[in-house]
Amino acid sequence: MNDAELAAHLAVEAGTVLLDVRASGQFEGKALGDAGDETANRYLVDALRTLRPDDGLLSEESKDTDERLSKSRVWIVDPVDGTREYGEGRSDWAVHVGLAIDGVAVTGAVALPGLDDGIVLRSDLPLQNMEFSDTPRLVVSRTRPAQEAVAVAKSIGGELVPMGSAGAKAMAVVRGEAEIYLHSGGQYEWDSCAPVAVALANGLHCSRIDGSPMLYNQRDTYLPDLLICQPEWADRVLKLVREGAGAGTD
């Protein structure tokens, strides 16, 4: 299978593994989150090392090494994006399987196994004819809404939509459930690589909040901010951020 098909297959299968771990009843709360992280990571890492042995690999749940830095192709995965939500039995968590080539997120799949339809969003199968609201909706952390997002929402007359994981928030924009995802305050490459690949394939704007591009497979994997939005909102939101629409964490 090609890279996009593989990314989707692995995201779906890891999601199934995670649902099985949760349904087993052996764990709850933080212990469930830890068990899910470990089990899904083992599945993804083993599969990628078998099926793409010449590529680099970066996973949130595996010790990083310098080996990937010499690779053009690097898989960047987050076995459970939103471990807290997963452990709490919520639906707003995700599985990220992304591929960066020469630092650019080109291929990705984001599975949302907790939803009733268990959807997987893919960079090779963009959604069609999505409808968006005239009133901009901004997805934000359900526990720590970024001050930038709060300030931008106020400036543009937007509505805040609390949600869990980064992947769930990014895919809400892809699915037409929100117009803007503005994040600041701390993320890593695995939090955004697959979502950015899917968002770009769906014609969305993706950048850092200073307007610079999202770059991956860097020595320092800290990638603390991003903007994913409908293209017509990008310039206005970036301008508001430049003008100092608050500061905070998401």
UniProtKB/TrEMBL annotation:
Q: Which InterPro entries match?
A: CysQ/Inositol_MonoPase (IPR050725), Inositol_monophosphatase-like (IPR000760)
Q: Which UniProt keywords apply?
A: Magnesium, Metal-binding
Gene3D superfamilies in alphabetical order: 3.40.190.80, Fructose-1,6-Bisphosphatase, subunit A, domain 1
Query: Which positions, given as ranges, span the membrane?
Result: none
Which GO molecular function, any one, fits this protein according to its record? Answer: metal ion binding
Query: A Pfam family this protein belongs to?
Result: Inositol_P
Which CDD domains does the record cross-reference, listed alphabetically? CysQ
Q: Respond yes or no to whether keyword Magnesium is given for this record.
A: yes
Metal-binding as a keyword of this entry, yes or no, is yes
Q: What is this protein called?
A: 3'(2'),5'-bisphosphate nucleotidase CysQ
Q: Which organism is it from?
A: Pontixanthobacter aestiaquae
Q: What is the lineage of its organism?
A: Bacteria, Pseudomonadati, Pseudomonadota, Alphaproteobacteria, Sphingomonadales
